[in-house]
Amino acid sequence: MAAVAKYTVKKKLLSFKIPFPFHIRQLPNIPFTFFAKAYGDLGYAYSEREFESRLNNRLLYTGGFGIDILTVYGININLEYSFNQLGENGLFLHGKGGF
Q1: What CA–CA distance (Å, rounded) separates 48 from 77?
Q2: How does the average pLDDT of the chain come out, rounded?
């Protein structure tokens, strides 16, 4: 038995375009859009067998906030600060392509 819940709230902060330095008709400008976000995840997995782990049969959660940058062709760059119930935290940088 397992359950997972995820929730994210985003708000558009800023949007602008920068002229492309080379003359390309299909891409005259490079668009940038910035979003602020806050998120939280919650999960639980039940196992009858006891393993040697402090995460078994416990409610696990994480939360954080960050900035998402969306640019040309769906390229997405995420800068996030996350924390969890174990007291672990950190700053993370993620990148995704749109193809």
Answers
A1: 40
A2: 89
Percent with pLDDT over 70 in the chain: 95
pLDDT of residue 56: 81
> CB neighbours (10 Å) of residue 76?
15
Domain boundary assignment for the chain: 2-96
pLDDT of amino acid 50: 67
Q: Are the C-beta atoms of 63 and 40 separated by less than 8 Å?
A: yes
Q: What DSSP letter does each residue of the chain carry, written as one string?
A: -EEEEEEEEEEEEEEEEEE-SS--TT-SEEEEEEEEEEEEEEEEE--SSPPS-TTTTS-EEEEEEEEEEE-GGG-EEEEEEEEETTS-EEEEEEEE---
What does the alpha-carbon distance between residue 23 and residue 17 come to, in Å, rounded to a whole number?
15
CA distance linking residue 41 with residue 78, whole number of Å? 17
**Global pTM?**
0.79
